[in-house]
Protein 1
Amino acid sequence: MKNDYRIALLPGDGIGPEVVGEAKKILQVLESGMGLKLTLETAPVGGSGYEATGHPLPEDTLKTAMNADAILLGAVGGPKWEKIDFSLRPERALLGLRSELKLFANLRPAKIFSALVDASTLKREVVEGLDLMVVRELTGGIYFGKPRGIETLPDGTRRGVNTLVYTEAEIERIVKVAFETALKRNKKVTSVDKANVLEATGLWREIAEQVAKGYPDVTLEHIYVDNCAMQLVRAPKQFDVLVTTNMFGDILSDQASMLTGSIGMLPSASLGGKTAMYEPIHGSAPDIAGKDLANPLATILSVGMMFKHSFDREEPNLWIENAVESVLAQGLRTRDIMSKGMKEVGTVEMGDSVARELEKLIQ
Ligand code: NAD
């Protein structure tokens, strides 16, 4: 098995550099504990890319990303760049990376740590033991479909247009990712659509049925997106793998994240091309940036997903999850997951604590 990996670190803006800094400690523990050679290359992206070069996805950053075995991204964006042209906004860097690297599949696990069950806004019995995976299509659908834009009509009023478009091939490849994922889990795929209203998602349903024929051990169910939103807060444990379009997945995965207590807890993987990208699902949180308040756990858990999906090493992912679980069991909490009787710690102390636990687990 390969021992030598090149990892692109793209910290980005706001709390991005803080949480990636903690994840870097985890990478260093894995490097020495497992006898690996990790080459970590840091490059600016988002607002910091724009400040450095005038573009949110500088050419050199894209090159570093494309030449890496895997990418770890913090977060991009912030009030400083809200007024600049849409094409130069920090968030455009994410769309650029996803399309250049052909990252069409976004995997977002929503797994609750037992020590955090009471941090969820839902009742203990609804969320205890929750472990579901949202597989979101990432490079197609209404976020990319054409025609798009705002046009002025002959009568002088304006009309905004976006287009929901999916080809059979785009649907097939994302649904296959969902089935492959389900094979390694509880063997159930729920495909989310709005086939009663949107023809494009009627096609989605048809293709999902076709793909299912190749996976006789996996059960396929269909659900309308409105019902899915309701079921996610009513009885989320009925789901194993949810697969859906870009926009539905965007919304449902944020909803699923809150079942687990905090947006600061959830990692993600974007797969498809040669190099995959790993990132926390949260944004740059400008309100808490630079204050040692950010929860670094989502980014740390993203490192685990990197080892599992890009390096085909399951063990480091389990070690990281166990290290996080034991730090939480010791009562350590960043402010976003703080509850009565627990000890509040900052970003750095949380990162150091997980790194220490990880060291013990590797030995
Ligand atoms: P956000 O996720 O940055 O923050 C939402 C809320 O959650 C805030 O109150 C924030 O303090 C809190 N939060 C987020 N991450 C946290 C963490 N790790 N620890 C503790 N608390 C945390 O979303 P937003 O406020 O809508 O967006 C802020 C900026 O981030 C915007 O510029 C937006 O475009 C950008 N954004 C970037 C990404 C990304 O880089 N992938 C994703 C979403 C939003």
Protein 2
Amino acid sequence: MRRKLAAGNWKMNGDASLLGELAQLAGQQSDTGPEILICPPHTLLAHAVSVTDGSPVGIGGQDCHAAETGAHTGDVSAPMIAATGAQAVIVGHSERRTDHHETNADVRAKVKAAWAAGLTAILCIGESEDERMGDSTLEIIADQLHASAPDGTTGDNTVIAYEPIWAIGTGRVPTLEQIIETHDMLRDELVGRFGPEAMTIRLLYGGSVKPNNAADIFTADNVDGALVGGASLAAADFQPIIDALAAS
Ligand code: PGA
């Protein structure tokens, strides 16, 4: 059975005071609940690893460069993230694809860099509002999936996060039927390409997941958890989402 995963993406938020929230979150988890991953800014990675040490909460980065080292001012490589004790890294988030013009080929290279450093890649895909309105969602995200996921993708090295761009930070979420449709299609595409083993690849939904809508979203068979932005910043908001996932 796929282990459920509640992942938090702090984005460009968080200072040392948020580490108190993280310590609280880590202290209140049981070993039998869903897997939990928090992705703070790079500046807090090592601190976050130390305050969650020995707890069921894992730590991840939010992006990595495709190269291991080199003349890339301001960038951080996957081995550097791994050296902090982090175990995962988000790649291909729509904010990176938009703000930094990252292509599917760029994202695929980052996934491979993550794997080479021993990190799990949390690979994000999702359609824009225009693409949703134009009825091309399934085609667009299938293309993104295949172009961004390298050969060799498995349930051990990769998690796929489906995040409709128009749902991120807006308070708008797709209908449950739309979430089921996209996640079922993604599962079929993964199994078609990687074989029956792809049943173990976790598929997260992301985009305005909140305590009041999480339980409904988690009823979908091929939703194995969530990638949560705003509601991952406070333990009081994230915990009910973790609890809804545990109960699903
Ligand atoms: P949100 O962000 O939960 O604040 O909508 C989700 C994400 O971008 O990962």
